[in-house]
Amino acid sequence: MHSVMQRENMSSKREREVGDRVENEGRDNESKRQKLDEDSSPSPPPVSIVNPLSGLANNYADIDEEEDYVRREKGSVNERRNDGHRYGEADDSDEEDDSHDHLFSGRNNRQVEVRKDCPYLDTVNRQVLDFDFEKFCSVSLSNLNVYACLVCGKYYQGRGKKSHAYTHSLEAGHHVYINLRTEKVYCLPDGYEINDPSLDDIRHVLNPRFTAKEVEQLDKNKQWSRALDGSSYLPGMVGLNNIKETDFVNVTIQSLMRVTPLRNFFLIPENYQHCKSPLVHRFGELTRKIWHARNFKGQVSPHEFLQAVMKASKKRFRIGAQSDPVEFMSWLLNTLHADLKTSKKNTSIIYECFQGELEVVKEIPNKGTIDKKENTEDQNNAEKLSDGVNERYAFVKETSKMPFLMLGLDLPPPPLFKDVMEKNIIPQVPLFNILKKFDGETITEVVRPHIARMQYRVTRLPKYMILHMRRFTKNNFFVEKNPTLVNFPVKNLELKDYIPLPTPNENEKLRSKYDLIANVVHDGKPGEGFYRVFVQRKSEEL
């Protein structure tokens, strides 16, 4: 009885062990199936975060190098599909199609922590910050997504873990960076954004701003500003750095900064936001920096503007090559007008300030007239030949209207003889004498593009008149400079006393009185000297 019972117990125990083993195996198989199902199931769609800078990203490609690199690496993996499932997709990537149109718009939508306090703010060194130069990374020379280190002043690209700014923060221990496009400040390598009002002065130097009310008060401001080095400067009267023989650009800029309507137009970027010309925007940036009252320095470097000039002029005007300010002024005004004018109207702030109109009477020799009296008899030869000469040089008159942005004045030729002291006599001439060129009666002979006799008369005066004296003449051997001094009044130049002017309409008043606002002079020998400019300080009438 005992043995039978023991066998039953053994058989029932064996059955229980088999059942448990089968149950365990079933449970293991089920867990494996669940694991396989989990591995093969599609990942849930990530939560998309609205990027407030998505609009800027399209224009400036404001993406980190690290994210760009990861996207390229993951791109080939994401294209492999298996039964509608994607494998190897990054957790933080957005659901979107693979079209190139979305390259910068929705891929880097990450939330960035914003802090009001940062332990590294005391390392910011405003003395070394200089935002006048081109916004290029000092390592990669790229202009995409550039940050400025606020500790050493250098420019670096990106802020991701494989970017140059991130590497610099680890190697040099510099932790505070500002994005040169968005003006946001970040702490690296931690990666959080710093929102501290003490950094607003840096933002204002990076991108000066003016309200309409501030623009109106500029010419009334007599208060001097103080730079970080303790020097004082008057906004609008700051110096421009001479970057290797670029004084011809600097004197032109300083002169144009005295033209109030032109200055006011470029101080408000909304006035020309429709324009796509880099030259226009660089000129506007330079204008705002010159008139900014919160600069860190008492001078401005026109480096970015010069780069735009070199590109727009196809290196006709470039750094390291001296040029004539008259040629540069003419090119700059015409180029700015061409970039600013709208398709409907051929007008711009340039024409509103500087454009006048001339009536030109051109007398051209009548080449079709033939001397028919050369074969006359000998006794009447002298008389008839003289008649034939008069007939040969008969002129045909052509009258036309011509707009102008500046008027060229001809100087009398310098004396050929020296005085007793063996020095050249420097003649002087009043401005009114050389203005007679535009009295409508004085004849000016020209040889280019063909021989002609010209008479000029001003039919419309501009608000601001640019006069230039032709001092340099070129021949086959050298350039000669005319040293004649021109005497002119500083205030109240009344043109109607010296040249005939058009009669105004009934309801209009003839405005023909001008005050001097800028005067450019050349010192030294032709081809070797340099240019200086005297400008009016309007707030004090000096």
Automatic annotation (TrEMBL):
Cellular component annotations (GO), alphabetically ordered: spliceosomal complex
SMART domains on file: ZnF_UBP
Location of region: Disordered: 1-108
Boundaries of every USP domain copy: 238-542
Domain of life: Eukaryota
SUPFAM superfamilies for this protein: Cysteine proteinases, RING/U-box
Comp. bias intervals (Basic and acidic residues): 10-38, 69-89, 99-108
InterPro entries, per database record: Papain-like_cys_pep_sf, Peptidase_C19_UCH, Ub_carboxyl-term_hydrolase, USP, USP39, Znf_RING/FYVE/PHD, Znf_UBP
Cell location: Nucleus
A single BP term in Gene Ontology: protein deubiquitination
Coiled coil: none
GO MF: cysteine-type deubiquitinase activity; zinc ion binding
Residue ranges of every copy of the UBP-type domain listed in the record: 116-213
Cited PROSITE patterns: USP_3, ZF_UBP
CDD domains, per database record: Peptidase_C19M
Alphabetical UniProt keywords: Metal-binding, mRNA processing, mRNA splicing, Nucleus, Spliceosome, Zinc, Zinc-finger
Family affiliation: Belongs to the peptidase C19 family.
Name the record gives this protein: U4/U6.U5 tri-snRNP-associated protein 2
Organism expressing this protein natively: Sphenostylis stenocarpa
Lineage: Eukaryota, Viridiplantae, Streptophyta, Embryophyta, Tracheophyta
